[in-house]
Design a protein that fits this description.
This protein is of the alpha+beta class. It has 27 helices and 13 strands. The chain is elongated.
């Protein structure tokens, strides 16, 4: 490693030229990486509602569907709008009243089944169903929905899962670049005051920026990433790898005092830093990789991208940042200034004075914080994740208020069941609490009319390939307890007629998503704990230290989530899972830094009190610097973000970085001092340096006595 580092230090321009050259294919890869805006697509294929969506897609061309609500408009306008939409290449069918009855028939004369579906109770509004040929989040469907929006008058609205996905795409594409620029600007401002040169933050961000481009560019090998990952990956990578850069530069400044040659000093800094950086980054990588074990594969998406981002961060810190520092060192020195980082001596003396109080407070907070965070209110519906003025959200509320269609489910059932049993099944579903209407072939066409004389266009909507489709509308919203109970009862009814029947649709998929992610949360939380515990146990050769370090960060996580509960704020269903893994993995470094420094000071011969205070004073400057950058970058995005899922994650991350840093200062520092005796007995090599220092002290005393 030393030979490689020395060669790089002597040829910085060659290394930088190669690094810049690799940026070009990375940018191309970033452009070619598809972004997935459909959260529900990350459910596993083994889930029955997902299998139902596949049947809707392959058999009925109905997996992606939009609903258009038109207020206070005449039938001719609606018919003309329907005709224009039908002309679009990606549209498979448009269903309105005139698909099943002549438009000349007065509304009052239409069958109740048609009136209940296509007209509001007040008859002021009508709606039509638009089915697409492609998947709900495909580029073709997204573009078609965009085209449909241009046809709508001010009293017409489009909604449904696909329309919400398209609005999400439009909003995310517009805001994501703003997040990155804003995070970089506020990070630059924060670092400018904390570092000792006005130019140094630009050098650090240049290296980390290259790492971010490499990471986002190599996502092309995955094929696609989620819009959530795209929105937060760069900010997270910046926040969790910033301290690696600071650590290397500080080490270089130390080595320059020992070695007159700059190149050799940098090579020594890289060599000595590399092992420490690898050890430090592994906790973060393990935290991210725990997300990859979620069956809800959004976790795999975020976890893999972020773990890869940390690896690129380490590589650029040891391969690219040294060269940038060597090239621009004279300029950095020219713009040196005093660091505005605070000193922590008074705070640490205060904490040490009341160490027993803080230790007791730590123990007292554990159980209530754990219980409170487990009761945080979660939301699963995308309508709560987007601004209320979007056309898809307005359309959704029109459907709820005017058509009593808060959610729509689809029942896929065997077409061989006779009409009498189907009528009985439909009546049982209609009688369920909260069901507002049922649309089926049996109800609209009737059993008396043979299929042979029904136009194929009409027949394909409801009956195809031996399966029949029934649409069930509910007044209950997706993810509500009422709808989940209704779906359970509906499933029991249809299974009694056809054991292979399936209930699918937004509500059914959301219900399965709740079950899946609740299980995933427990699994990933446990995996991240076990992985990081083992890593810390191996690193420190200790049984007790991993317990103290992990508990100090876990308490910070529980307090973070508990605050959301106390404030009455709903959190996105992905929030707790992501935060548990990311906050633990990213901020346990703070705990490792303090503990390592405490051990070093003990080994240098200081007593417990001097060692813990000196370690805290030194380590907390690095902790503070890292936490501040993490905080300002995520909090800035929180302030401007209009996508609630991203906004909520950034809020939790910003708050979590501050709480984790505070937990290290107020809880871990006293705990390390109080339990030092236990740590010494349960940690291999912990007391070795102390004994050596003690022997040296005794020898010096003996020599002084002899001389006297």
């Amino acid at each position: 490693m030393k030979r490689i580092a020395l060669w790089e230090a002597k040829h910085p321009k060659i290394v930088i030229a190669i690094a810049i050259a690799l940026v070009i294919p990375s940018i191309i890869g970033f452009i070619m990486t598809r972004v997935n805006y459909d959260i529900m697509s990350y459910l596993p294929d083994s889930v029955e509602s997902v299998q139902g969506e596949e049947i809707l897609d392959q058999t009925f061309n109905n997996a992606s569907m939009s609903i258009i609500v038109v207020e206070k408009s005449n039938a001719r306008y609606v018919a003309a709008l329907k005709e224009e939409i039908e002309k679009m290449d990606a549209v498979s069918s448009v269903i309105w009243v005139n698909s099943l009855a002549d438009i000349s028939i007065p509304q009052d004369v239409l069958p109740d089944a048609l009136k209940d579906i296509f007209y509001s109770k007040s008859s002021d509004s009508t709606m039509m169903l638009v089915q697409y040929k492609y998947a709900g989040s495909s580029a073709e469907t997204m573009q078609t929905i965009k085209n449909i929006k241009t046809l709508l008058s001010k009293n017409a609205f489009i909604s449904g899962v696909s329309a919400i996905v398209e609005d999400t795409k439009e909003l995310s594409d517009k805001e994501a670049p703003i997040y990155i620029v804003l995070a970089i600007v506020v990070a630059l401002v924060a670092m400018s005051f904390m570092m000792e040169s006005w130019l140094q933050p630009f050098i650090v961000l240049a290296a980390l920026g290259i790492a971010i481009i490499y990471n986002m560019g190599t996502n092309v090998f995955k094929g696609e990433i989620s819009f959530i990952t795209q929105s937060i990956a760069a900010i997270l990578q910046l926040g969790v790898t910033m301290d690696y850069s600071v650590f290397l530069i500080d080490r270089y400044n130390e080595e320059k005092l020992k070695t007159p040659m700059r190149e050799e000093a940098m090579a020594n800094a890289v060599t000595k830093s590399f092992t420490a950086l690898i050890g430090s980054s592994l906790t973060t990588i393990f935290g991210f990789l725990a997300l990859c074990f979620m069956t809800f594969t959004l976790g795999l998406d975020i976890g893999l991208v972020m773990a890869k981002g940390v690896v690129f961060g380490i590589l650029t810190v040891v391969l690219i940042l040294p060269e940038l520092v060597l090239i621009f060192e004279d300029t950095m020195n020219k713009y040196k200034h005093k660091s505005f980082l605070p000193h922590f001596e008074k705070l640490n003396n205060f904490v040490f004075k009341y160490k027993a109080v803080f230790a007791v407070l730590f123990v007292l907070l554990l159980i209530p914080a754990y219980l409170l965070q487990s009761k945080v209110d979660l939301y699963y519906s995308m309508d709560k994740a987007l601004p209320q003025d979007l056309i898809s959200i307005q359309g959704l509320y029109k459907m709820k208020n005017e058509f009593q269609m808060a959610s729509t489910q689809f029942v896929i059932i065997d077409d061989s069941i006779d009409s009498g049993k189907l009528t009985k099944l439909e009546n049982e579903i209609e009688n369920l609490d909260g069901v507002s209407s049922v649309l089926s072939y049996n109800k609209v066409i009737g059993p008396a009319i043979p299929d042979d004389i029904v136009p194929d266009k009409i027949l394909d909507i409801c009956k195809k390939d031996g399966k029949q489709l029934i649409m069930v509308n509910s007044v209950y919203e997706s993810a509500s307890d009422e709808l989940n109970s209704q779906i359970d009862k509906m499933t029991a009814i249809i299974k009694s007629y056809d054991p292979n029947a399936i209930v699918t649709g937004e509500g059914a998929i959301t219900k399965d998503m709740i079950v899946t992610t609740n299980r995933d949360f427990n699994v990933t939380a446990m995996l991240s704990l076990i992985a990081i515990f083992i890593l810390l146990a191996v690193t420190f050769k200790s049984i007790s230290l991993p317990v103290l370090l992990i508990l100090s960060i876990e308490l910070a996580i529980w307090i973070n989530l508990s605050i959301s509960k106390l404030l009455g704020a709903e959190v996105s269903f992905v929030g707790p899972t992501v935060i548990n893994c990311i906050q633990l993995g990213a901020t346990v470094d703070y705990a490792v830094l303090l503990t390592t420094r405490f051990r070093e000071e003990l080994h240098s011969g200081l007593d417990k009190k001097e060692a813990i205070l000196k370690a805290a004073n030194a380590a907390e400057r690095s902790v503070f610097q890292s936490a501040v950058v993490f905080f300002v970058a995520t909090f800035a995005v929180y302030l401007v973000c209009n996508i609630s899922i991203v906004k909520g994650i950034c809020s939790l991350l910003a708050r979590g970085s501050v709480i984790s840093a505070a937990s290290i200062v107020f809880f871990l520092m006293p705990l390390l001092y109080i339990f030092e005796g236990v740590i010494s007995k349960t940690t291999f090599g912990w007391a070795k340096g102390k004994k050596a220092a003690s022997v040296n002290t005794e020898n010096i005393a003996k020599e002084e006595n002899q001389n006297a």
